Amino acid sequence: MTRLSLLLSVLALFVLPGLAGAEERWQTLPEPAPMPKADESGYAPVNGIEMYYAVFGKGDPVLLIHGGLGHADIWASQVATLSKTHKVIIADSRGHGRSTRTEEPFGYDLMASDYLALLDHLKIDKTALVGWSDGGIIGIDIALHHPERLTKVFAQAANVTTDGVDPGVLTNKTFAAYIDRSGRDYKKLSKTPDQYDAFVGQISKMWETQPNWSKEELAKITTPIAVVAGDHDEAILRKHTDYMASVIPGAKEIILPNASHFAMLQAPDEYNQAVLDFIDAK
């Protein structure tokens, strides 16, 4: 069994104590707020899948990409704020939430191409991108290979090599609660509610070897990028976040206080302000 498959097995079986009594904000996993009513929503046919998406508001576009095993509804608080001044696009990544998947092996390049095809479907030439965890990695992939499609990338809780993952996540209660919630949400949202194990197995194969970008590759990035982490991130080593900020040209490092891997849920007001300050800065 690989380290990553062991991780998922351990977390899926973890006996969860109640988190309600946690004293620190970064130890909690709040439920997402209700999602605002979309101006447009539907399914885009991209790369052989049906990709769920929704669009809110008007203005310069910003694409929000969720993390692994999750879905777009985690962004409700961000949508409510950002859509006041921006056109906000959310979507469920392939196999996640309401989107379908194929038997094609998962890869960040494939997932990036899904989002580029979605932007084409929506006739959006260029956008800011806010990515959390896998979503941040997808943003970096697009910055590497299709910088012409991006204005800026706010990459929170991302890694650029597999050794950036903190082995302590194996026994972290908050992350275990997220894994548990993700399985329940999958059964409620997915068109294949009985295939969660197959889906997890498929994406786990990607996590075993990806991402794996060299310093030389990352040094070629020209898109303005914010490398963002909560100061108590359970999954990404702080030294890895610092490394990313040091090797991506011009990167801005943002450390969110009293927050973890799930900062968008724990500290939505501070998170939203950090996003706006970065993507709207001239």
TrEMBL record:
InterPro entries: AB_hydrolase_1 (IPR000073), AB_hydrolase_fold (IPR029058)
Keyword Hydrolase: yes
GO molecular-function term, one example from the UniProt record: hydrolase activity
Transmembrane segment boundaries: none
UniProt keyword Hydrolase, yes or no: yes
Domain AB hydrolase-1: residue ranges: 61-201
Signal peptide residue numbers: 1-22
Tree of life domain: Bacteria
One Pfam short name: Abhydrolase_1
Keywords for this protein: Hydrolase, Signal
PANTHER family attached to this UniProt entry: VALACYCLOVIR HYDROLASE
Descriptive protein name: Alpha/beta hydrolase
Protein species of origin: Ollibium composti
